[in-house]
Amino acid sequence: MSPRPVLRVVPTPHEAAPEVRFCGYCGHRPAPEEDHRICTSCDLGMVLSAAATVAPRHDQPSLIVDQALGICAVSRAAEALLGVDEPDIVGRSLAELLVPAQAEGVSLDTLVGGVLAAAGAAGGVERAVVRPAGEWGIRYVVRMGACGPPRAVVLVLDDDEV
């Protein structure tokens, strides 16, 4: 046996996407020198961080979901798009608001799996097609990624309705 170490393939580390800060309610992105926890633009949302590839743009519909799939925050644009009021929906299950868009053959596990994968993927982006619960004929592409603190997932309803 040779005293040389055994060579093996090592996965290439993913380059971390740059993080940006954003308001969970209005989507405003504070200047880097601003160190406020509450948004100074709307005075309503908590300032969170996420990879630039997943963070919502200003006034883009988004939801913040915790690791138990409970809704923690709803943006102003998502309130208007989905016809909900944040105080009424915070603390409820994501499945009460959004479900996978496919009518048959796809269970809620598909959406749940995407959310859980997004929570564990540092800088990664997961995508799914969803519809409002109880609605048919309306579908949205949602991109999901980790955000925080505290650790959560941001779901951004992209502008391109399917």
From TrEMBL:
- Record's protein name: PAS domain-containing protein
| Source species of the chain | Paraconexibacter antarcticus
Alphabetized SUPFAM superfamilies for the sequence = PYP-like sensor domain (PAS domain)
